[in-house]
Amino acid sequence: MPPRAAEPAATEERRADPLTTPVDGLGEALAAVDAFDRALVAGLLRPQPARVADLTEVARAVAGSPLAARVAEAVEKVAAGAAGEDHLVALAAARTALLGAAHDALTARADESTGRARGEATAAAPDGRQTVNLLLAARTWLADLARAGWQGIDHELVGSAAQIVSAMLPDPALRRLATLLDGFAAELAASCPGASLDRFPARRWGDLWARALLLTRPCAAAPRPTAPATGRLLPLGIDLHEHATAAQAQVHAVFEPADGGAPRLVRASVSVPKPDTVVAAGVWQLLRPHLPLLTALGEGRSMQLTDMPLTEEGDLIWEDQRARAGEPADAFATARVALPAATAPPTAPLDRHTARLAEPVFLEGYATRQDAGSPLTLDFAGHSLAVDTDRIPAAGPLTPEAVAASSACIGLLRWDDGEFHVQPLAVETTVRRRTVALQAGAWAGGTTDKTGVKAEKAATDAVTVLRERAGRLLRK
Predict the structure, then answer these.
(1) Three-class SS of residue 318?
(2) Torsion of CA 83, 88, 94, 99, to 10 degrees
(3) Strand, helix or coil at 17?
(4) Which one has a higher pLDDT value, 476 or 473?
């Protein structure tokens, strides 16, 4: 019998195994998605034999699913140059199903590693408010894109989406699809003509195309039902997404219902447009007024919610009047005590994608290592977990150096490039013999840090100049 002292280490090793053991069928599923994306690059109007072979690979990948017959028929029609819009929808569904299966397998591995329970999704209620004619118009445009392929796009084809988007935007039921089409068309327009491109973002454009095409199905974009949530919200950290013209802050937290129910993992997000001159800590200046939760997290406080709308997928539909600041709440205390018992929400069907995997985790007792030319890694129980330092925002005090010197980490478990990574949201490290916590979102509620103050001032100056210029244009 092995000595008792060896048992904890063995237990940790078993828990780490799910993150490093290959997932059966994952490579084949992703290879089929890549095959379909190659066909989209060339176009589906008159595909060459190599591209027909790619589509056949997709049909084989879903041969044991309820989509098998429809996808096989769609491939035959595409090969004959006679594919209709319904056939393209079937191919988009197959691509989405393959990525969904990959997402589910990776999520199961993450749950196995953390020992976390997960809720089950229910079907969304039909929404009869959508305008069918506009959905058909959007589907036709997306079908024309697929037939032309990314190599065949031009300004006339891409620009024809503008009228559809303008007609959709006033309708709240269609705004989700309209926003997706608008952004997609803008990306394509910036790359026109496609014949001049040497490389294509095939996976990204394939994702956008397939998602948009499925959202043209009646009821596919129906809003998810919500239920009122009353209780205490304990923030864990902020995941900041920044684009040249937009920014989003997504707060990950544990929600403890007032009725004594099981704690749940939830998210609350706010998105704002921004000038490309507003960067780093200046982004908080734009986000802060729209979500008091950012200030609460910056101050290290909980929030008390009263009948806040909460979707089945764990997203809080934030309404300021339903929240108030609560008592001080340390994120690391939450991670150590509340996070292990929290139930994870299910994922909506169309959101099942490997890129969407972002599971809050707490790690400690690891050693950090960074070899020349290799990413920073956390070593524990004989295994290594790479740190995604590229996702650490410049809008906070958290840095790769701080992660390398840390002893505990709150992060998001993600999957990319064939392996799991951890994106740090906060770390505990030692400074002058004292344990201090560094949050990526520490400056969300304001800061006295010299770097943060300087960035906020630069953002104020940039916004002031832009407002003055806009005012002059309007006066003319």
Answers:
(1) coil
(2) 140
(3) helix
(4) 473
Q: With b meaning 16 or more CB within 10 Å and e meaning fewer, what string describes 322-344?
A: bbeeeeebebbebbeebbeebbb
Residues 6+ apart with CB under 8 A from 195: 151, 152
Please, what's the b/e burial string for 271-308 (b: 16 or more CB within 10 A of its CB; e: otherwise)? ebebeeebbbbbbbbbbbeebbbbbbbbeebbbbbeeb
Report the run of H or E that residue 231 belongs to, with start and end. strand 226-242
Q: Give the H/E segment covering residue 233.
A: strand 226-242
Question: How far apart, in Å, are the Cα atoms of 163 and each of 133, 134, 191, 475?
Answer: 13, 10, 20, 28
What SS3 class is residue 452?
helix
The answer to whether 331 and 374 are in contact (CB under 8 A) is: no
pLDDT exceeds 70 at position 463: no
For 198, phi and psi rounded to 5 degrees? -90, -35
The pair of structure tokens assigned to 49 is: 């034999």
| Angle, alpha carbons 95-97-100 (nearest 5°) | 115
User: Residues near 344 by Cβ (< 8 Å), separated by ≥ 6?
Assistant: 111, 116, 117, 118, 119, 265, 314, 359
Within 8 A by CB and 6+ apart from 181, the residues are 138, 141, 161, 164, 165, 168, 212
361: Cβ contacts below 8 Å, ≥ 6 apart? 114, 410, 411, 412, 413, 422
What is the SS3 assignment for 81? Answer: coil
In whole angstroms, how far apart are CA 465 and each of 284, 291, 335, 354, 446? 18, 25, 42, 41, 22
C-alpha 288: how far from its chain's center? 21
Phi, psi (deg, nearest 5) at residue 166 = -60, -35
Question: Cα dist. 346→118, 121, 350, 370 in Å?
Answer: 6, 5, 12, 35
**pLDDT tens profile 427-451:** 998 888 888 899 998 888 877 777 7
Q: What is the pLDDT of residue 204?
A: 96
DSSP symbols for 287-314: HGGG-HHHHHHHTTEEEEEEEEEEETTS
Other beta carbons within 10 angstroms of residue 120's beta carbon come to 7
- DSSP type of residue 440: T
State both tokens at 456. 């906020």
Two tokens, residue 311: 């979707």
Residues 345 and 264 sit within 8 Å (Cβ to Cβ):
yes
Arithmetic mean of pLDDT, 45-65: 95
